[in-house]
Amino acid sequence: MTEEQLQATGPADSPVAMWIAILAGMSLVIGGLSAVFWATVVELPTYRILADGSATISERGITEIVASDVWFVITGALVGTGLGLVTWKWFRTLGWPTALLAAGSGLLAGLVCWQVGELLGPGSFAERLTGALPGALVPIPLELRSLSALAVWGFAAVTPVLLASSLGPDDEDHTTRWRRHPVEPEAEESGTIDDRGVLTTPDEPS
Fold first, then answer.
1. Which position among 93, 124, 134, 178 has the lowest Cβ density within 10 Å, counted as fewest Cβ atoms?
2. Does residue 206 fall inside a structural domain?
3. DSSP string, 143-174
4. pLDDT of 124
5. How many domains does the chain have?
6. Are 77 and 152 spatial neighbours (Cβ–Cβ below 8 Å)?
C-alpha cells in the first residue's frame, strides 16, 4: 500500500490510524445516543398481576413484544447509512478496506445501542414480577430478541460504500479511449523503382 493510500481525506498530514480511531469513537457515541432513542421510543407491553399472584398479558401486548426489535432495526438502518456515508467520505482512497471499516463502525454502534439500551430499560423482569402487588402493571424488559437485527447495522453501513464505489466515476483516465478526430494513417509514398532499385517519386527528376 503506497503512502498516498495511507492518508485519509482529512488533514493531509494525519495518518489513517487516527481517523479510524475517530470513526470508532464516533460509533461509540452515536451508539449510546441511539440507545437513548431506542429506550424512549419503544412502548413496552405490560403484564397485569392478578389476585392469585399470576400474571396475564393482553393479545395486543403479545403483538407489541416484537416492537423493540422493529425499532432497533429502524434505528440501525438510519444510523448505519449515516456511518457508511461518513466512512466513504473519509476513507474512499483506501480501496476495499473502506467497506470493512463501514461494516465495523455500524456493528460497533449497534452493539453499544443494544447493551446500553437494555441498561436503560426497566431492569430485571423476574425481580420486578416477584415484588409486584396484585393489580400492578409490570412492563417487559427492553431487550433484543433477534440477534439477526444487529446485522442490519453493518449491512446498512456498508451499502452506501458499495453503491458509491460501483456507481461513482472511475478515477482511471479514459481520455486516450476517446478522440475528437480519428487519426488518419500516413499516406504511403508512390513512385517507380528503376533497374538499380532506386525509388523515384513523381516530383523527383529521373
1. 178
2. no
3. ----THHHHHHHHHHHHHHHHHHHHSPP-S--
4. 73
5. 1
6. yes
Under a CB-based contact definition with an 8 Å cutoff, are residues 28 and 108 in contact?
yes
Provide the domain limits for residue 104. 16-172
This prediction has a pTM of 0.69
Q: Which three cell numbers stand for residue 71?
A: 425499532
CA angle (164 as vertex; 163, 166 as ends), nearest 5: 65
CA angle in degrees (0–180, nearest 5) for 44-79-87:
160
Read off the pLDDT band of 10 (50, 70, 90).
very low
The cell numbers describing 117, all together, are 439500551
* C-alpha count within 13 angstroms, C-beta hemisphere, residue 161: 29
Amino acid occupying residue 9: T
Q: Which backbone phi and psi does 197 adopt, to 5 degrees?
A: 85, 20
Please check whether residue 19 is in contact with residue 100, taking contact to mean a CB–CB distance below 8 angstroms.
no
Supply 120's cell numbers: 436503560
The values of phi and psi at residue 78, to 5°, are -70, -50
Domain membership of residue 195 (yes or no) is no
Residue 62 maps to a domain: yes
Helix/strand/coil percent split, the chain, to 5: 55, 5, 40
Q: Is 109 helix (H, G, I), strand (E, B) or coil?
A: helix
Q: Is residue 79 part of a domain?
A: yes
Does the pLDDT of residue 138 top 90, yes or no? Answer: no
